[in-house]
Specification:
single chain; alpha/beta; FAD/NAD(P)-binding domain; Polyamine Oxidase, Chain A, domain 2; 3 domains; 7-stranded mixed β-sheet; 6-stranded parallel β-sheet; binds flavin-adenine dinucleotide
Protein backbone atom coordinates (compact mmCIF):
# COMPACT_ATOMS: atom_id res chain seq x y z
CA UNK A 1 0.00 0.00 0.00
CA UNK A 2 1.34 3.43 -1.00
CA UNK A 3 1.28 6.14 1.63
CA UNK A 4 0.13 8.84 -0.80
CA UNK A 5 -2.21 8.17 -3.72
CA UNK A 6 -2.33 10.87 -6.42
CA UNK A 7 -5.31 11.04 -8.78
CA UNK A 8 -4.69 12.68 -12.15
CA UNK A 9 -1.50 13.05 -14.20
CA UNK A 10 -2.17 16.57 -15.41
CA UNK A 11 0.43 19.18 -14.53
CA UNK A 12 -0.57 19.46 -10.85
CA UNK A 13 -0.47 15.70 -10.26
CA UNK A 14 2.88 15.38 -12.07
CA UNK A 15 4.28 18.33 -10.13
CA UNK A 16 3.11 16.86 -6.81
CA UNK A 17 4.86 13.58 -7.64
CA UNK A 18 7.99 15.41 -8.81
CA UNK A 19 8.21 17.50 -5.64
CA UNK A 20 7.60 14.48 -3.39
CA UNK A 21 10.55 12.82 -5.11
CA UNK A 22 12.60 15.99 -4.77
CA UNK A 23 12.17 15.56 -1.02
CA UNK A 24 13.41 11.98 -1.29
CA UNK A 25 9.96 10.48 -0.88
CA UNK A 26 8.79 7.76 -3.23
CA UNK A 27 6.02 6.02 -1.32
CA UNK A 28 3.33 7.30 -3.64
CA UNK A 29 1.40 6.04 -6.63
CA UNK A 30 -0.17 8.15 -9.38
CA UNK A 31 -3.24 7.20 -11.45
CA UNK A 32 -4.63 8.82 -14.61
CA UNK A 33 -7.97 8.08 -16.27
CA UNK A 34 -6.83 8.77 -19.85
CA UNK A 35 -4.45 6.68 -21.93
CA UNK A 36 -2.09 9.67 -22.11
CA UNK A 37 -0.82 12.01 -19.42
CA UNK A 38 -0.81 15.84 -19.37
CA UNK A 39 -4.51 16.59 -18.81
CA UNK A 40 -5.34 20.03 -20.21
CA UNK A 41 -1.67 20.49 -21.13
CA UNK A 42 -1.88 17.75 -23.76
CA UNK A 43 -1.11 18.27 -27.45
CA UNK A 44 -2.67 16.46 -30.40
CA UNK A 45 -0.85 15.69 -33.66
CA UNK A 46 -2.96 15.41 -36.80
CA UNK A 47 -1.94 15.45 -40.49
CA UNK A 48 1.37 17.14 -39.68
CA UNK A 49 -0.24 19.84 -37.50
CA UNK A 50 0.00 20.14 -33.70
CA UNK A 51 -2.93 21.46 -31.67
CA UNK A 52 -3.09 22.09 -27.92
CA UNK A 53 -6.30 22.24 -25.92
CA UNK A 54 -6.64 25.92 -27.01
CA UNK A 55 -3.76 28.36 -26.66
CA UNK A 56 -1.52 27.33 -23.77
CA UNK A 57 1.26 29.84 -23.29
CA UNK A 58 3.91 29.73 -20.61
CA UNK A 59 4.14 32.70 -18.28
CA UNK A 60 7.09 32.32 -15.93
CA UNK A 61 6.84 35.20 -13.46
CA UNK A 62 7.90 33.12 -10.44
CA UNK A 63 11.65 32.67 -9.91
CA UNK A 64 11.38 29.05 -8.80
CA UNK A 65 9.16 28.14 -11.78
CA UNK A 66 11.53 29.90 -14.16
CA UNK A 67 14.54 28.02 -12.82
CA UNK A 68 12.68 24.71 -13.01
CA UNK A 69 11.81 25.40 -16.67
CA UNK A 70 15.42 26.40 -17.31
CA UNK A 71 16.88 23.28 -15.67
CA UNK A 72 14.41 20.65 -16.83
CA UNK A 73 13.14 21.93 -20.13
CA UNK A 74 16.07 24.11 -21.25
CA UNK A 75 15.56 27.71 -22.37
CA UNK A 76 17.03 26.84 -25.79
CA UNK A 77 13.98 24.63 -26.46
CA UNK A 78 11.55 27.53 -26.00
CA UNK A 79 10.60 30.51 -28.14
CA UNK A 80 10.47 33.79 -26.20
CA UNK A 81 7.56 35.70 -27.69
CA UNK A 82 6.23 39.25 -27.34
CA UNK A 83 2.46 39.15 -27.53
CA UNK A 84 0.59 40.43 -30.60
CA UNK A 85 -2.99 40.27 -29.40
CA UNK A 86 -5.98 42.33 -30.45
CA UNK A 87 -9.68 42.95 -29.95
CA UNK A 88 -11.87 42.90 -33.04
CA UNK A 89 -14.98 45.08 -32.85
CA UNK A 90 -16.74 47.55 -35.17
CA UNK A 91 -14.72 46.00 -38.03
CA UNK A 92 -11.54 47.30 -36.34
CA UNK A 93 -8.56 45.65 -34.70
CA UNK A 94 -7.47 47.44 -31.52
CA UNK A 95 -4.52 46.30 -29.45
CA UNK A 96 -5.14 44.41 -26.21
CA UNK A 97 -6.08 45.55 -23.61
CA UNK A 98 -9.16 47.42 -24.80
CA UNK A 99 -9.18 49.73 -21.77
CA UNK A 100 -5.95 51.43 -22.87
CA UNK A 101 -6.11 51.04 -26.65
CA UNK A 102 -9.19 52.67 -28.18
CA UNK A 103 -7.31 53.99 -31.21
CA UNK A 104 -9.15 53.26 -34.47
CA UNK A 105 -12.63 52.78 -32.99
CA UNK A 106 -15.56 55.02 -34.08
CA UNK A 107 -15.45 58.41 -32.34
CA UNK A 108 -18.80 57.84 -30.63
CA UNK A 109 -17.50 54.67 -28.95
CA UNK A 110 -14.30 56.41 -27.81
CA UNK A 111 -16.37 59.29 -26.40
CA UNK A 112 -18.70 56.89 -24.54
CA UNK A 113 -15.77 55.03 -23.00
CA UNK A 114 -13.97 58.21 -21.89
CA UNK A 115 -17.11 59.88 -20.54
CA UNK A 116 -18.06 56.65 -18.75
CA UNK A 117 -14.58 56.36 -17.26
CA UNK A 118 -14.70 59.94 -15.94
CA UNK A 119 -18.11 59.22 -14.42
CA UNK A 120 -17.24 55.71 -13.25
CA UNK A 121 -19.04 54.51 -10.15
CA UNK A 122 -16.30 55.19 -7.63
CA UNK A 123 -18.93 55.50 -4.89
CA UNK A 124 -19.31 51.70 -4.88
CA UNK A 125 -17.20 50.80 -1.85
CA UNK A 126 -17.06 47.05 -2.09
CA UNK A 127 -18.41 45.66 -5.38
CA UNK A 128 -20.34 42.42 -4.85
CA UNK A 129 -20.69 41.52 -8.50
CA UNK A 130 -18.39 41.60 -11.49
CA UNK A 131 -20.71 44.17 -13.12
CA UNK A 132 -20.37 46.54 -10.14
CA UNK A 133 -16.62 46.02 -10.19
CA UNK A 134 -16.42 47.00 -13.87
CA UNK A 135 -18.64 50.06 -13.34
CA UNK A 136 -16.45 51.14 -10.42
CA UNK A 137 -13.11 50.65 -12.18
CA UNK A 138 -13.87 51.34 -15.85
CA UNK A 139 -17.34 52.92 -16.09
CA UNK A 140 -20.39 52.16 -18.24
CA UNK A 141 -18.80 52.82 -21.67
CA UNK A 142 -16.09 50.18 -21.33
CA UNK A 143 -18.67 47.91 -19.69
CA UNK A 144 -21.06 48.20 -22.65
CA UNK A 145 -18.53 47.96 -25.46
CA UNK A 146 -16.14 45.34 -24.11
CA UNK A 147 -16.40 43.85 -20.63
CA UNK A 148 -20.05 42.83 -20.54
CA UNK A 149 -20.36 41.30 -24.01
CA UNK A 150 -16.94 39.64 -23.80
CA UNK A 151 -17.33 38.14 -20.31
CA UNK A 152 -20.87 36.99 -21.12
CA UNK A 153 -19.40 34.98 -23.98
CA UNK A 154 -16.48 33.53 -22.06
CA UNK A 155 -18.52 32.58 -18.97
CA UNK A 156 -21.79 31.66 -20.76
CA UNK A 157 -23.38 32.53 -17.43
CA UNK A 158 -25.51 35.28 -15.89
CA UNK A 159 -22.97 38.04 -15.15
CA UNK A 160 -25.16 39.40 -12.35
CA UNK A 161 -24.28 36.30 -10.34
CA UNK A 162 -20.53 36.45 -10.90
CA UNK A 163 -18.37 37.99 -8.18
CA UNK A 164 -15.21 40.01 -8.87
CA UNK A 165 -13.05 37.72 -6.73
CA UNK A 166 -11.26 36.24 -9.81
CA UNK A 167 -10.26 39.50 -11.52
CA UNK A 168 -6.85 40.21 -9.90
CA UNK A 169 -4.05 39.96 -12.43
CA UNK A 170 -6.40 38.89 -15.24
CA UNK A 171 -7.85 42.37 -15.90
CA UNK A 172 -5.28 45.18 -16.32
CA UNK A 173 -6.30 48.52 -14.80
CA UNK A 174 -6.35 51.84 -16.68
CA UNK A 175 -6.10 55.60 -16.04
CA UNK A 176 -7.20 58.72 -17.91
CA UNK A 177 -3.68 59.51 -19.23
CA UNK A 178 -3.35 55.92 -20.46
CA UNK A 179 -6.75 56.07 -22.15
CA UNK A 180 -5.85 59.36 -23.89
CA UNK A 181 -2.46 58.01 -24.98
CA UNK A 182 -4.28 54.94 -26.30
CA UNK A 183 -6.75 57.03 -28.29
CA UNK A 184 -3.76 58.78 -29.88
CA UNK A 185 -2.19 55.40 -30.60
CA UNK A 186 0.77 55.95 -28.27
CA UNK A 187 0.46 52.87 -26.03
CA UNK A 188 2.75 49.91 -26.60
CA UNK A 189 0.08 47.40 -25.64
CA UNK A 190 2.65 45.40 -23.66
CA UNK A 191 0.55 45.48 -20.51
CA UNK A 192 -0.69 42.63 -18.32
CA UNK A 193 0.61 39.26 -17.18
CA UNK A 194 0.85 37.76 -20.66
CA UNK A 195 2.76 40.51 -22.53
CA UNK A 196 5.66 38.11 -23.01
CA UNK A 197 5.47 34.36 -22.97
CA UNK A 198 7.38 31.19 -23.71
CA UNK A 199 6.32 28.43 -26.06
CA UNK A 200 8.08 25.16 -26.95
CA UNK A 201 9.88 25.21 -30.28
CA UNK A 202 8.66 21.67 -31.04
CA UNK A 203 5.66 19.40 -30.43
CA UNK A 204 3.31 21.82 -28.68
CA UNK A 205 2.79 22.60 -25.01
CA UNK A 206 2.81 18.93 -23.97
CA UNK A 207 6.52 18.66 -24.82
CA UNK A 208 7.65 20.56 -21.72
CA UNK A 209 5.14 18.81 -19.43
CA UNK A 210 6.42 15.46 -20.70
CA UNK A 211 9.98 16.50 -19.79
CA UNK A 212 8.83 17.12 -16.22
CA UNK A 213 6.99 13.76 -16.13
CA UNK A 214 10.11 12.03 -17.49
CA UNK A 215 11.91 13.04 -14.28
CA UNK A 216 9.66 10.78 -12.19
CA UNK A 217 11.06 7.48 -10.93
CA UNK A 218 7.65 5.96 -10.18
CA UNK A 219 5.47 4.91 -13.14
CA UNK A 220 2.22 6.72 -13.94
CA UNK A 221 -0.65 4.25 -14.17
CA UNK A 222 -2.86 5.33 -17.07
CA UNK A 223 -6.35 4.12 -18.08
CA UNK A 224 -7.33 4.15 -14.41
CA UNK A 225 -10.61 5.97 -13.77
CA UNK A 226 -11.69 6.62 -10.20
CA UNK A 227 -15.24 5.43 -9.71
CA UNK A 228 -15.73 5.72 -5.96
CA UNK A 229 -13.79 6.93 -2.95
CA UNK A 230 -14.63 5.39 0.40
CA UNK A 231 -13.66 8.12 2.87
CA UNK A 232 -14.26 5.96 5.92
CA UNK A 233 -12.20 2.96 4.82
CA UNK A 234 -9.74 5.14 2.84
CA UNK A 235 -10.08 3.16 -0.35
CA UNK A 236 -10.15 4.32 -3.99
CA UNK A 237 -12.25 2.10 -6.28
CA UNK A 238 -11.49 2.22 -9.99
CA UNK A 239 -13.88 1.37 -12.85
CA UNK A 240 -11.76 -1.66 -13.78
CA UNK A 241 -12.27 -3.19 -10.33
CA UNK A 242 -8.89 -2.24 -8.87
CA UNK A 243 -9.04 -0.99 -5.27
CA UNK A 244 -6.23 1.16 -3.88
CA UNK A 245 -5.94 1.93 -0.15
CA UNK A 246 -4.40 5.26 0.89
CA UNK A 247 -3.27 7.12 3.93
CA UNK A 248 -3.32 10.46 2.14
CA UNK A 249 -5.24 11.11 -1.06
CA UNK A 250 -4.19 13.95 -3.38
CA UNK A 251 -6.74 14.45 -6.10
CA UNK A 252 -6.59 16.80 -9.09
CA UNK A 253 -9.85 15.62 -10.66
CA UNK A 254 -12.56 18.31 -10.81
CA UNK A 255 -13.98 18.96 -7.36
CA UNK A 256 -17.60 18.44 -8.46
CA UNK A 257 -16.68 14.98 -9.82
CA UNK A 258 -14.71 14.19 -6.67
CA UNK A 259 -17.75 15.00 -4.55
CA UNK A 260 -19.87 12.77 -6.83
CA UNK A 261 -17.52 9.86 -6.24
CA UNK A 262 -17.09 10.09 -2.46
CA UNK A 263 -18.87 7.63 -0.29
CA UNK A 264 -18.91 9.87 2.74
CA UNK A 265 -19.35 9.55 6.43
CA UNK A 266 -22.62 10.70 7.99
CA UNK A 267 -21.00 13.95 9.22
CA UNK A 268 -19.40 15.24 6.04
CA UNK A 269 -22.46 16.40 4.03
CA UNK A 270 -20.39 16.98 0.93
CA UNK A 271 -22.96 15.69 -1.54
CA UNK A 272 -25.13 18.76 -1.06
CA UNK A 273 -22.27 20.95 -2.27
CA UNK A 274 -21.73 19.22 -5.62
CA UNK A 275 -24.58 20.80 -7.64
CA UNK A 276 -23.64 24.28 -6.38
CA UNK A 277 -20.20 24.11 -7.95
CA UNK A 278 -20.68 25.60 -11.39
CA UNK A 279 -18.35 25.47 -14.33
CA UNK A 280 -18.61 25.96 -18.07
CA UNK A 281 -17.25 23.93 -20.97
CA UNK A 282 -15.21 25.17 -23.90
CA UNK A 283 -15.31 23.83 -27.44
CA UNK A 284 -11.97 24.32 -29.11
CA UNK A 285 -12.01 24.06 -32.93
CA UNK A 286 -8.75 23.85 -34.84
CA UNK A 287 -8.02 24.23 -38.54
CA UNK A 288 -4.95 23.24 -40.55
CA UNK A 289 -4.71 25.56 -43.54
CA UNK A 290 -2.76 25.09 -46.77
CA UNK A 291 -1.52 28.68 -47.00
CA UNK A 292 1.33 30.39 -45.16
CA UNK A 293 0.76 33.23 -42.69
CA UNK A 294 -3.04 33.41 -42.65
CA UNK A 295 -2.52 36.00 -39.89
CA UNK A 296 0.51 37.57 -38.22
CA UNK A 297 -1.36 37.90 -34.89
CA UNK A 298 -1.06 35.57 -31.92
CA UNK A 299 -4.69 35.80 -30.91
CA UNK A 300 -7.76 38.05 -31.21
CA UNK A 301 -10.66 38.59 -28.76
CA UNK A 302 -14.18 38.88 -30.18
CA UNK A 303 -16.65 40.66 -27.86
CA UNK A 304 -19.41 41.07 -30.45
CA UNK A 305 -22.41 38.77 -30.36
CA UNK A 306 -22.45 38.06 -34.07
CA UNK A 307 -19.39 35.83 -33.58
CA UNK A 308 -20.08 32.71 -31.49
CA UNK A 309 -16.43 32.45 -30.39
CA UNK A 310 -14.73 34.70 -27.87
CA UNK A 311 -11.19 34.17 -29.17
CA UNK A 312 -9.27 33.01 -32.22
CA UNK A 313 -5.54 32.35 -32.24
CA UNK A 314 -2.85 31.17 -34.61
CA UNK A 315 -0.66 28.20 -33.70
CA UNK A 316 1.88 28.82 -36.46
CA UNK A 317 2.85 32.12 -34.78
CA UNK A 318 3.79 30.32 -31.51
CA UNK A 319 6.20 28.02 -33.30
CA UNK A 320 6.76 27.36 -36.99
CA UNK A 321 6.75 23.61 -36.29
CA UNK A 322 3.06 23.70 -35.30
CA UNK A 323 2.13 23.55 -39.00
CA UNK A 324 3.88 21.91 -41.98
CA UNK A 325 5.96 24.15 -44.28
CA UNK A 326 3.81 26.52 -46.32
CA UNK A 327 0.80 26.07 -43.97
CA UNK A 328 -0.92 27.98 -41.15
CA UNK A 329 -3.10 26.82 -38.28
CA UNK A 330 -5.85 28.43 -36.29
CA UNK A 331 -7.77 27.75 -33.07
CA UNK A 332 -11.06 29.15 -31.85
CA UNK A 333 -12.98 28.84 -28.59
CA UNK A 334 -16.59 29.18 -27.51
CA UNK A 335 -18.14 28.43 -24.13
CA UNK A 336 -21.39 26.83 -23.07
CA UNK A 337 -23.05 25.27 -20.07
CA UNK A 338 -24.89 22.02 -20.68
CA UNK A 339 -25.83 22.62 -24.33
CA UNK A 340 -27.01 19.74 -26.55
CA UNK A 341 -24.78 17.90 -28.99
CA UNK A 342 -26.83 19.43 -31.80
CA UNK A 343 -26.25 22.99 -30.55
CA UNK A 344 -22.53 22.34 -30.18
CA UNK A 345 -22.31 20.89 -33.69
CA UNK A 346 -24.19 23.84 -35.23
CA UNK A 347 -22.20 26.43 -33.26
CA UNK A 348 -18.94 24.78 -34.30
CA UNK A 349 -19.98 24.90 -37.98
CA UNK A 350 -21.09 28.54 -37.68
CA UNK A 351 -17.83 29.44 -35.89
CA UNK A 352 -15.68 27.83 -38.57
CA UNK A 353 -17.67 29.64 -41.31
CA UNK A 354 -17.15 33.00 -39.53
CA UNK A 355 -13.43 32.30 -39.06
CA UNK A 356 -13.10 31.45 -42.74
CA UNK A 357 -14.80 34.70 -43.72
CA UNK A 358 -12.77 36.84 -41.31
CA UNK A 359 -9.43 35.40 -42.40
CA UNK A 360 -10.38 34.72 -46.01
CA UNK A 361 -9.88 30.95 -45.85
CA UNK A 362 -11.51 28.89 -48.62
CA UNK A 363 -12.90 25.36 -48.08
CA UNK A 364 -10.18 24.00 -50.38
CA UNK A 365 -7.45 25.47 -48.16
CA UNK A 366 -8.61 23.58 -45.06
CA UNK A 367 -6.56 20.39 -44.94
CA UNK A 368 -7.53 19.24 -41.47
CA UNK A 369 -10.01 20.00 -38.67
CA UNK A 370 -9.89 18.94 -35.05
CA UNK A 371 -12.56 19.76 -32.48
CA UNK A 372 -11.57 19.30 -28.83
CA UNK A 373 -13.97 19.39 -25.89
CA UNK A 374 -12.81 20.89 -22.59
CA UNK A 375 -15.59 19.69 -20.29
CA UNK A 376 -14.35 21.70 -17.29
CA UNK A 377 -12.98 25.04 -18.54
CA UNK A 378 -13.84 28.18 -16.52
CA UNK A 379 -15.25 27.64 -13.04
CA UNK A 380 -17.92 30.15 -12.06
CA UNK A 381 -16.93 32.50 -9.24
CA UNK A 382 -20.31 33.11 -7.63
CA UNK A 383 -21.25 34.02 -4.05
CA UNK A 384 -21.84 30.37 -3.14
CA UNK A 385 -18.35 29.40 -4.25
CA UNK A 386 -16.67 32.28 -2.43
CA UNK A 387 -18.48 31.42 0.82
CA UNK A 388 -18.44 27.61 0.82
CA UNK A 389 -15.29 26.48 -0.93
CA UNK A 390 -13.05 26.76 2.15
CA UNK A 391 -15.51 24.60 4.14
CA UNK A 392 -15.45 21.87 1.49
CA UNK A 393 -11.66 21.73 1.58
CA UNK A 394 -11.71 21.75 5.36
CA UNK A 395 -13.97 18.67 5.42
CA UNK A 396 -11.84 16.89 2.86
CA UNK A 397 -8.66 17.66 4.81
CA UNK A 398 -10.24 16.17 7.94
CA UNK A 399 -10.38 12.91 5.96
CA UNK A 400 -6.82 13.23 4.60
CA UNK A 401 -8.03 14.22 1.13
CA UNK A 402 -6.26 17.12 -0.60
CA UNK A 403 -8.13 18.39 -3.65
CA UNK A 404 -5.61 20.52 -5.56
CA UNK A 405 -4.91 22.15 -8.93
CA UNK A 406 -7.12 24.27 -11.17
CA UNK A 407 -10.22 22.08 -10.90
CA UNK A 408 -9.41 20.40 -7.61
CA UNK A 409 -9.38 23.84 -5.97
CA UNK A 410 -12.09 25.15 -8.30
CA UNK A 411 -10.27 28.27 -9.45
CA UNK A 412 -8.56 29.98 -12.37
CA UNK A 413 -4.91 29.19 -12.50
CA UNK A 414 -2.08 28.83 -14.94
CA UNK A 415 0.50 26.16 -15.66
CA UNK A 416 2.91 28.02 -13.39
CA UNK A 417 0.41 27.80 -10.54
CA UNK A 418 -0.22 24.11 -11.27
CA UNK A 419 3.50 23.47 -10.74
CA UNK A 420 3.60 25.62 -7.61
CA UNK A 421 0.41 23.96 -6.27
CA UNK A 422 2.10 20.57 -6.68
CA UNK A 423 5.21 21.85 -4.89
CA UNK A 424 3.17 23.33 -2.03
CA UNK A 425 1.12 20.12 -1.70
CA UNK A 426 4.23 17.96 -1.47
CA UNK A 427 5.70 20.27 1.16
CA UNK A 428 2.50 20.33 3.21
CA UNK A 429 2.16 16.55 3.16
CA UNK A 430 5.75 15.90 4.09
CA UNK A 431 5.74 18.41 6.91
CA UNK A 432 2.45 17.25 8.46
CA UNK A 433 2.91 13.50 8.74
CA UNK A 434 6.71 13.66 8.88
CA UNK A 435 6.95 11.07 11.61
CA UNK A 436 4.88 8.51 9.73
CA UNK A 437 6.70 9.15 6.51
CA UNK A 438 10.08 8.68 8.09
CA UNK A 439 8.80 5.36 9.46
CA UNK A 440 7.94 4.14 5.95
CA UNK A 441 11.63 4.58 4.94
CA UNK A 442 10.43 5.24 1.43
CA UNK A 443 13.64 6.57 -0.03
CA UNK A 444 14.24 6.60 -3.73
CA UNK A 445 17.01 4.17 -4.74
CA UNK A 446 20.20 5.87 -5.88
CA UNK A 447 20.09 4.33 -9.35
CA UNK A 448 17.11 5.37 -11.41
CA UNK A 449 14.92 2.29 -12.20
CA UNK A 450 13.69 1.71 -15.75
CA UNK A 451 10.36 3.55 -15.77
CA UNK A 452 7.50 2.80 -18.07
CA UNK A 453 3.94 3.97 -18.27
CA UNK A 454 1.73 1.19 -16.96
CA UNK A 455 -1.69 0.60 -18.38
CA UNK A 456 -4.52 -0.44 -16.11
C1 LIG B 1 -9.36 27.50 -22.01
C2 LIG B 1 -8.11 27.42 -21.16
C3 LIG B 1 -6.96 28.09 -21.55
C4 LIG B 1 -5.82 28.05 -20.75
N1 LIG B 1 -4.70 28.73 -21.15
C5 LIG B 1 -3.60 28.73 -20.37
C6 LIG B 1 -2.42 29.45 -20.78
O1 LIG B 1 -2.37 30.07 -21.84
N2 LIG B 1 -1.35 29.43 -19.93
C7 LIG B 1 -1.36 28.76 -18.73
O2 LIG B 1 -0.35 28.78 -18.01
N3 LIG B 1 -2.45 28.06 -18.34
C8 LIG B 1 -3.57 28.03 -19.12
N4 LIG B 1 -4.68 27.33 -18.74
C9 LIG B 1 -4.65 26.66 -17.41
C10 LIG B 1 -3.96 25.28 -17.43
O3 LIG B 1 -4.54 24.46 -18.40
C11 LIG B 1 -4.18 24.64 -16.05
O4 LIG B 1 -3.74 25.47 -15.03
C12 LIG B 1 -3.47 23.30 -15.86
O5 LIG B 1 -3.50 22.53 -17.02
C13 LIG B 1 -4.18 22.59 -14.73
O6 LIG B 1 -3.60 21.34 -14.51
P1 LIG B 1 -4.28 20.33 -13.49
O7 LIG B 1 -3.37 19.17 -13.38
O8 LIG B 1 -4.64 21.05 -12.24
O9 LIG B 1 -5.67 19.92 -14.16
P2 LIG B 1 -5.93 18.95 -15.41
O10 LIG B 1 -5.04 19.25 -16.53
O11 LIG B 1 -7.41 19.00 -15.64
O12 LIG B 1 -5.53 17.50 -14.86
C14 LIG B 1 -6.39 16.70 -14.09
C15 LIG B 1 -6.14 15.24 -14.48
O13 LIG B 1 -7.02 14.40 -13.73
C16 LIG B 1 -7.49 13.37 -14.57
N5 LIG B 1 -8.76 12.87 -14.03
C17 LIG B 1 -9.95 13.50 -14.00
N6 LIG B 1 -10.90 12.69 -13.48
C18 LIG B 1 -10.29 11.53 -13.16
C19 LIG B 1 -10.75 10.29 -12.60
N7 LIG B 1 -12.04 10.10 -12.28
N8 LIG B 1 -9.86 9.31 -12.42
C20 LIG B 1 -8.54 9.49 -12.74
N9 LIG B 1 -8.05 10.63 -13.28
C21 LIG B 1 -8.92 11.64 -13.49
C22 LIG B 1 -7.68 14.08 -15.91
O14 LIG B 1 -7.75 13.17 -16.98
C23 LIG B 1 -6.46 14.99 -15.96
O15 LIG B 1 -5.35 14.37 -16.57
C24 LIG B 1 -5.82 27.33 -19.53
C25 LIG B 1 -6.97 26.63 -19.15
C26 LIG B 1 -8.11 26.68 -19.95
C27 LIG B 1 -9.35 25.94 -19.52
Amino acid sequence: MAHIVIIGAGLTGISTAYHLEQQIFSDYVIFEKEATIGGLCGSVQQDGFTFDFTGHLLHASDDYFYSLIKDIVGLDTLNVITRRSFIYSHDTYTEYPYQINLNGLPTSIIAECIEGFVKRHTHIQKPNTFIQWVLKNFGPGFAKHFFMPYQRKIFAYDLRRITPSWTGRFVPSTSLPQIIDGVLGHNSGNVGYNARFLYPKKDGIFSWVKKLADQLHNPIRTNMTVERIDMRKKLVHFTNGHIEPYKILVTTMPLDRLIDTVHETSRTNLKQAGPNLRCNSVINFNLGIKRPNVSDKHWVYFPENKYPFYRIGFWHNFSETMAPAGCSSLYGEFSHIGKSRNWIEQTTQASIAHAQELFDISDAEIVTKKVLNISHAYVIYDAWRDKNLPKIHQRLHEHSIYSVGRYGEWKYSSMQEAVLDGKATAQTLLIRPAQKIIETKSYIPRTRPQKEIQNG
